Amino acid sequence: MANIDEYGGGQRPDAQVLVVTTNDIPGYRVDHVIGEVFGLTVRSRHIGSQIGASLKSLVGGELRGLTKTLVESRNEAMERLVEQTKARGGNAVLMFRFDVTEAADVGTEVCAYGTAVVISPATA
């Protein structure tokens, strides 16, 4: 399970896989590049929440049901990315990104991707 907070805002300190959006990690060296890893999920919303979102969009404001679904999707995609990284022997992901698209008008596809690597502390 990925060690990310409730809102998908970042890793908890007990994480076993470090996930960053940068090309490198200060204080660490890349010992081995494993390659691309990804986590993918496709979610649909039930008809009640879709109707509620449609009505809410008429008056404006946050679509909380949709926000909750997207946060859950993002967290699930990131968990799968971390699982794949661990399974391939990595302990970090560099150049982490999300991609969100509509999936055949029935749901939302969330893909978390990056480059799995093995890192170790840099020596001075």
TrEMBL record:
Domain of life: Bacteria
SUPFAM superfamilies membership: YbjQ-like (SSF117782)
One Pfam entry name: YbjQ_1
Family: Belongs to the UPF0145 family.
The name this protein goes by in its record: UPF0145 protein ACFP3U_03920
Organism, as annotated: Kitasatospora misakiensis
Lineage, top ranks: Bacteria, Bacillati, Actinomycetota, Actinomycetes, Kitasatosporales
